[in-house]
Amino acid sequence: MATNLAMTLVEAFSGLTALKYGKELIIFIISMFPILELRGGLIAATLLGLSGLPSFIICFIGNIIPIPFILWLITPIFNRLKKTKLFSGIVNKLERKAMSKKDQIEKLQYIGLLLFVGIPLPGTGAWTGCLIAALLDMDKKKSMLYAILGVLLAGVIMMILSFGILDNIIH
User: Fold this and answer.
1) What's the pTM?
2) C-alpha 129, offset from chain centre
3) What is the average per-residue pLDDT within 27-50?
């Protein structure tokens, strides 16, 4: 699923490749997307023929940029949106979906957050992990640190997969 979505976004943003650092911009943008995050950015980097370490750094930065915004702003935004007729159902659904995955984080706290963000499985990652941490009212500074460490772990795992296995399949 992530590979197909990354491929679709690479095609959608293909016009950016005409820019000097267009390929790098594509993987940076993809790394900020929920669902795909750094994992999708590294898959896209492989598809675009970019080098491993520079791609890792670009995707890492792209993936950690949303973390403080989610931790500090999502709860007030959700609380405000829940008061509206138009968005209350969507927000409640997002909260229920995120909280259905809270067990690992709730049980292991910050190590659970690190593992939730860092082990690249469907439905995990910095966006969901930070949303859960915010909804559980965990310490924001500690959550940010452990989420960033989780992104680093996910990056190492995905570098092995994307620039090892996937790269060998493509080339």
Assistant:
1) 0.88
2) 9
3) 93
